[in-house]
Design brief:
This protein has 64 residues and is of the alpha/beta class. It contains 2 helices and 3 strands, in the order H-E-H-E-E. The protein has helices spanning 8-12, 25-30; strands at residues 18-21, 39-40, 59-62.
Length: 64
Amino acid sequence: MDDLRIDPDEAQQLKDAVFVDARNPQAWGAATTKLPGAIRIPANALASHLTDLPEGKLLITYCT
C-alpha cells in the first residue's frame, strides 16, 4: 500500500474516494468543521478496523 499526500482541493476532485476522519474523540468533538459522510476511526484504532473499510476504494485519512 502506498502513502501519498494530497491537498484539500485535490481531495475534492476524487469522486470515488472514502474519507476516514482519524482525529481522536476529543479533537473530533471540539472541531467546528466535519466532513459529511466521512468514516470516523481514531488513528490509534485504524489497524483494528481495517476490515470495516470498503475494499477496492481509495482511502483518504485525515486529521488535524
